Amino acid sequence: MNLNNIIASNLKKLRSDKKLSLSNLSELSGVSKVMIGQIERGQSNPTINTIWKLANGLKVPYTALIDEPKSKTTLVKKEDTINQCSEDGKYRVYCHFSTQNERNFELFRVELDTASSYTSNSHGEDEYEYILVFDGELTLETDNKTYVLSPGDSISFDASKTHTYINNSNEMIRMTILNYYPMNLKYYLP
Question: Boundaries of each HTH cro/C1-type domain copy (predicted)?
Fold first, then answer.
């Protein structure tokens, strides 16, 4: 995609998201309505100064107008996941999605070997963890309580407290963990 088309697409989306007419944006940015219309149709090659004016008028970073829009579809292949494990190697985490400007959660595929456990410290204030068990039987200790989850069971809890995953079963535990971070997310691109 060429830069003029990228700017055209981004400008149109940002102006629409902020519910600004051409006249409103013209007043806010000091760029004429005619020029804004031409830029949005890809009929103009805006100068750096014009892009700065538009960015300031929209109250977005300069790069919000020039960066290529991200695809709304993200494919993560199993072999491309980020792999981490505990010191003893019995607890393995595969990160499929990390937090980003437009995403306030992390998604992990997790394995916990038989006759083992893993203790996780606080993830931070007001953060929550969601678990869905696929294989094995998970014993979860958190906030001075014990929960036993079988395949198909799920739980959510306050991850700001230390919590321990325990596998007392004869089968490896396979589960998905989603860590949710309630933060004020600001993103500018589609």
Answer: 11-65
Give the amino acid at 150. S
What is the dihedral angle through the alpha carbons of 141, 147, 152, 155, rounded to the nearest 10 degrees?
-70
Question: How far is residue 82 from each of residues 22, 28, 71, 85, 114, measured CA to CA in Å?
Answer: 45, 44, 21, 10, 23
Question: pTM, whole model, 2 decimals?
Answer: 0.64
Token pair recorded at residue 148: 């036993």
State how far the Cα of 54 lies from the Cα of 74, in Å rounded to an integer: 30
Q: What is the 3-state secondary structure (H, E, C) of 90-145?
A: CEEEEEEECCECCECEEEEEEEECCCEEEEECCCCCCCEEEEEEEECCEEEEECCE
Query: What are the structural domains of the chain?
Result: 3-66 (1.10.260.40), 78-180 (2.60.120.10)
Per-residue pLDDT of 9-61, as tens digits, reads 999 999 999 999 999 999 999 999 999 999 999 998 898 889 989 998 999 88
